[in-house]
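Good day; I would like, with your permission, to put a structural problem before you. A protein sequence and the structure tokens that stand for its backbone fold form the material at issue. The record follows directly beneath this note:
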Amino acid sequence: MTKQNGTRYTQERKVEIIGRMMPPNNEAVAKISKEEGISEVTLYKWRKEARVAGTATPGNGQTSDKWNSQDKFLIVMETFAMNELELAEYCRKKGLYREQIEAWKSVCLQANGQAFDQSKQLNVQLKEEQKRAKALEKDLQKKEKALAEAAALLLLRKKAQAIWGDDADE
């Protein structure tokens, strides 16, 4: 139970208020706070606890297409094993459309596939970059070797000029 201005809330009352944050009501936390005289902090805490327990509680006063991905995912999880009749009843009760839930389910199911595809693509890009880096390293070594050779020849030329004079050029 939670305490607010000396008042304790029963579990039933808490569940009732959390229910107002859930579909189809989906009432805003600020509105409930004002009507019930419960601090928004307490309501957000209750909503967070409900989400952790696996309940979709948007509580933002927005339509279902603007819910966050966590709430949509929780709805998909709640409905995943339902047959058509159960799903229809759930949708009526929550004020949702079956097509919305099916679209959310599709996105959830594709999420891991997209991550795998992205990972695969990144691995290919990484290998290409590693090959490119190796080729650049090899090219750099050749150029460093040629530069060292040129420096050595220049040094020998200067020494030859110092020993034999300026006539060494001819």
Strands lie at 3-4, 7-8.
